[in-house]
Amino acid sequence: MRIEAANSRDDGAAVVLTAIRPPAPSDVPLAWPLTSGEREVVGPLLHGLSNAQITARLHRSENTVQTHLRHAYAKLGVNSRTHLLARLFQETYWTSGGVVGDAGNVEGHASGRSEHDRSVGLIRSPPARTAARLGPAL
User: Fold this and answer.
1) Which backbone phi and psi does 124 adopt, to 5 degrees?
2) Which of 84, 49, 86 is closest to 65 using CA atoms?
3) Which of the chain's ends, N or C, has fewer CB atoms near its CB within 10 Å?
4) DSSP 73-136
């Protein structure tokens, strides 16, 4: 989401929220210290497949898929599919000032996200200078 703000005539702020096309899901980052088997299982997970779908696609037992995921989670310091996706998002798309858009430009982000989102690294508060430019809360 791109956020644009401008001062209006009546000392307020005009804010426009524009949906942007999300980036394509990333492949497993090369920097992640995973074995080839772990990468083979984590890749489809990053694209939204369930364990059963990964099992069918790779012709592996569900136990093998779960074992590879458990080992990958341990190596990456996460404990769930959600945390793995949060780590990928943070390492791939997040910068200190916002989300990297399609052209590599940093896009602003909406405030008011939950503390849980901040705690898992999905949302960071904007710098004070950014918040100050937007003016008083609407």
Assistant:
1) -120, 145
2) 49
3) C
4) HHHHT--SHHHHHHHHHHHHTEETTEEE-TTSPEEP--S---HHHHHTTS--PPPHHHHHHH-S
Number of domains in the chain: 2
pTM over 0.85: no
Whether 89 and 97 have beta carbons less than 8 Å apart is answered as no
Shared domain for 98 and 87, answered yes or no, is: no
Q: pLDDT (tens digit, 9 = 90+) per residue, 61-120?
A: 999 999 999 999 999 999 999 999 999 888 877 755 555 444 444 444 443 444 444 444
Range of the domain at 118: 2-23+93-132
Residue 125 has pLDDT above 60, yes or no: no
Domain assignment of residue 52, yes or no? yes
Decide if 138 is inside a domain.
no
